[in-house]
């Protein structure tokens, strides 16, 4: 896991010098590493521009969410324990995924409360952030001098919105992108239908929910659907491509890294 991203990011870090400011430990979710590595690269680009020293632990693996959600708590606990140990010395852990961050913050307690890792778990939960909330709420950095022409609409991913309470930070960042007009779609907070294994177990319902999300986005005249979570965007993009809908998906890190 993390083979390609590991090699490229470590190479970038060995060339970096004279970082100032806070130290950030990068967590790259499974699907970002395997399917959308460019988003990981852009995340590094953003954090470095915001003045952070970025550290990448090549031993990192999954946060443990897939096994937990499927009901395999013992197997998930093993993966989560490794995650805690991998980031035990981190000042901050930042990820381009509200879903993974929400899982660490809200569900690690179910696995580690009153355990030998209780204190380590609580500390990790305190310092783990989704990218946009970290940029806006911790660093107070909103303007990357990004530029991207077009109309966009924003999808509030369930993990980011409901588990991490992230609503305004992505919009504050997008409002600073030159040439980008942001239009709110109807039911922007409604689930896209992915839900991990939900999309597999209830594929007809899941596809209908994706269709509703795409229809609402297209009705705004948007060229892009933007979100914090590539799991949602990957699901929606499958529907877009099948139906040949006139809209594209983009992770917010890729938008903020545009034009500079």
How would you describe this structure to a colleague?
- The structure is a single chain.
- This protein is of the alpha/beta class and 260 residues long.
- It has two domains: 3-137, Rossmann fold (3-Layer(aba) Sandwich); 144-256, 3-Layer(aba) Sandwich (Rossmann fold).
- Helix content is 52%, strand content 13%.
- It has helices spanning 3-15, 30-34, 37-49, 65-69, 73-86, 98-112, 118-127, 131-138, 158-163, 168-174, 198-201, 203-219, 230-243, 252-256, and strands spanning 23-26, 53-56, 93-95, 128-130, 147-154, 178-182, 224-227, 248-251.
- Strand 7 (224-227), helix 13 and strand 8 form a beta-alpha-beta unit.
- It starts with a helix and ends with a helix.
Give a short overview:
The protein has helices at residues 3-15, 30-34, 37-49, 65-69, 73-86, 98-112, 118-127, 131-138, 158-163, 168-174, 198-201, 203-219, 230-243, 252-256; strands at residues 23-26, 53-56, 93-95, 128-130, 147-154, 178-182, 224-227, 248-251. By secondary structure, it is of the alpha/beta class. The chain has two domains: 3-137, 3-Layer(aba) Sandwich (Rossmann fold), CATH 3.40.50; 144-256, Rossmann fold (3-Layer(aba) Sandwich).
